């Protein structure tokens, strides 16, 4: 036991940041605790985020393939019948198995799970219920929760105005779902219910969907979702939602101002972003302040401005992604154990798990250009359409492309973006290449198995340097 503390390290929060960090810390020989206020471990990701949303996306994709004629195209004639309770059960089962798996891993690695809500008494002591626990180092891994829309009351139990958690649990397919916010959650969960038969309207404040992604991806995304039957109202803001019984009436206005219109829906999904969880944590007791966005600022070793207190995951600046939180969890544990923990924040892939998937890693073309001071000759871009990829074509998956952005002088890959049925899997190759400082030539001369979607990455890299073969 370190210096008379109860623990060497105590993590607050058991999401992908906290649970992974706690396991790594224990593996490194540190006496470790993890406090979690939920009934189960795994945080947002396992309980109400990544895992249940992917369970619904995967299941609804089967239904859609049968309903939209995709299966018939391949000679499989079926008329699908939706069994929503079973679909929900398999989702709950996935969550149960995975959260239970973390409990098993905690036991196996001797991580102490403290149940309850933690708040700081001082930098080395937290209070959980009536008990207090001390640790030499405390890591804040409290994650994030839904950003509310002022004046709009979410009531997940009623199912009319819901957030992502409510949208995973709907007991019936809505007739008309209006999604407020055309970001990752709105498009993933909007896709689930569109596939299952809902009319879906997405209201997005900006002039394109998916802020943060490459401009070409954002433009193509709008085309793809419109083709699938989603109604997109871009450059539009929601100024109010009135609920009467089971009907919501939304008031919309052009983002730049102008005449208002109304829209009726039996389900409204509020998905306008997430904000860091720091309320009730007692940060004032240790003199730790948050920045303007409510995040906890950290240095390269995840140290906050208060000695002995570090922070990781959604509660600190950077993309709010599970794998980023996990890598930070491992790295923070390594620093605490006296090692060097590395996370390359320039190479964090992002994936939207719609159909097709949309993924990227590194700089967008816009950001690369900005970094080059607007000098178009400083970057080279190669693109290859999935329509010309033999596997995508064979699988009846014509939408999308791969785009490789490279430094014109060094040929080093700066960013890779893809829309393809399996873009989320394909992007791992680009991340690995970038981590090793790959040039577009390295990727173009790497043998890719045929026939795979990944050949499109090779051909896009060839396009950076001249011409691909199949176009
Ligand atoms: P969290 O997972 O939010 O965990 C924090 C935990 O801390 C929570 O369990 C909370 O109960 C607990 N806690 C908070 N305060 C206290 C306290 N004071 N005391 C004790 N416990 C406390 N990311 C991806 O990379 N891929 C995806 O496919 C993906 N899909 C998503 C789908 C949805 C619908 C949502 C909402 C999010 C999704 N995300 C996805 C984002 C991902 O869930 C988060 O980035 C990730 O969970 C962040 O991990 P974290 O450990 O920082 O925090
Ligand atoms: P988001 O930030 O991705 O998108 C929110 C969208 O709402 C933006 O496009 C924004 O312009 C728009 N918006 C904001 N206010 C608005 C208003 N008043 N009216 C209309 N539009 C408005 O946030 P989202 O989708 O809620 O997701 C939160 C976080 O969860 C994301 O940061 C993401 O990283 C993470 N997540 C990741 C997933 C993945 O990796 N596949 C899946 C789901 C969530």
From TrEMBL:
Active site: 450 (proton acceptor)
Textual note on the cofactor: Binds 1 FAD per subunit.
Top EC group: oxidoreductase
PROSITE patterns: PYRIDINE_REDOX_1 (PS00076)
Database matches in InterPro entries: Class-I_Pyr_Nuc-Dis_Oxidored, FAD/NAD-bd_sf, FAD/NAD-binding_dom, FAD/NAD-linked_Rdtase_dimer_sf, Lipoamide_DH, Pyr_nuc-diS_OxRdtase, Pyr_nucl-diS_OxRdtase_dimer, Pyr_OxRdtase_I_AS
Residue ranges constituting the FAD/NAD(P)-binding domain according to the UniProt record: 7-329
GO cellular component, one term: cytoplasm
GO molecular function, one term: flavin adenine dinucleotide binding
Family to which this protein belongs: Belongs to the class-I pyridine nucleotide-disulfide oxidoreductase family.
Name listed for the protein in its UniProt record: Dihydrolipoyl dehydrogenase
Annotated organism of origin: Alteraurantiacibacter aestuarii
């Amino acid at each position: 036991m370190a210096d008379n503390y109860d623990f060497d390290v105590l993590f607050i929060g058991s999401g992908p940041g906290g649970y992974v960090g706690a396991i790594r810390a224990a593996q490194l020989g540190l006496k470790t605790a993890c406090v979690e206020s939920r009934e189960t471990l795994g945080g947002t990701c396992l309980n109400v985020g990544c895992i249940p949303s992917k369970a619904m996306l995967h299941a609804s994709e089967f239904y859609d393939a049968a309903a939209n004629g995709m299966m018939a195209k391949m000679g499989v004639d079926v008329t699908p019948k939706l069994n929503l309770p079973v679909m929900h059960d398999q989702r709950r089962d996935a969550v149960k198995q995975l959260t239970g798996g973390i409990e098993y891993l905690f036991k196996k690695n001797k991580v102490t799970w403290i149940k309850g809500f933690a708040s700081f008494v001082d930098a080395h002591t937290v209070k959980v219920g009536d008990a207090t626990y001390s640790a030499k180092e405390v890591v804040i891994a409290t994650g994030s929760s839904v950003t509310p829309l002022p004046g709009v009351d979410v009531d997940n139990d009623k199912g009319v105005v819901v957030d992502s958690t409510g949208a995973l649990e709907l007991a019936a397919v809505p007739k008309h779902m209006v999604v407020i916010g055309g970001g990752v959650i709105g498009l993933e969960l909007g896709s689930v219910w569109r596939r299952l038969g809902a009319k879906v309207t997405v209201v997005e404040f900006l002039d394109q969907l998916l802020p943060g992604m490459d401009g070409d991806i954002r433009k193509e995304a709008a085309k793809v979702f419109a083709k699938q039957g989603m109604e997109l109202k871009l450059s539009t803001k929601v100024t109010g939602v009135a609920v009467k019984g089971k009907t919501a009436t939304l008031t919309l206005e052009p983002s730049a101002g102008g005449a208002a219109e109304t829209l009726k829906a039996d389900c409204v999904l509020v998905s306008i972003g997430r904000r860091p969880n720091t309320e009730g944590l007692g940060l004032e007791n240790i003199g730790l302040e948050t920045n303007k966005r409510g995040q906890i600022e950290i240095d390269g070793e995840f140290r906050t401005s208060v000695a002995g207190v570090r922070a990781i995951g959604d509660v600190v600046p950077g993309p709010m992604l599970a794998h980023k939180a996990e890598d930070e969890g491992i790295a923070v544990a390594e620093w605490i154990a006296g090692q060097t923990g590395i996370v390359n924040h320039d190479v964090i892939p992002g994936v939207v798990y719609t159909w097709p998937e949309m993924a990227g890693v590194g700089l967008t073309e816009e950001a690369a250009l900005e970094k080059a001071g607007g000098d178009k000759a400083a970057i080279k871009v190669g693109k290859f359409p999935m329509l010309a990829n033999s596997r995508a074509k064979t699988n009846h998956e014509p939408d999308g492309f791969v785009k490789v952005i490279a430094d014109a002088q060094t040929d080093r890959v700066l960013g890779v973006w893809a829309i393809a049925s399996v873009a989320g899997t394909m992007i791992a190759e680009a991340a690995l290449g970038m981590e090793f400082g790959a040039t577009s030539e390295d990727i173009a001369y790497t043998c890719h198995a045929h026939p795979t979607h990944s050949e499109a990455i090779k051909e896009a890299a060839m396009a950076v340097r001249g011409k691909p073969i199949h176009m």
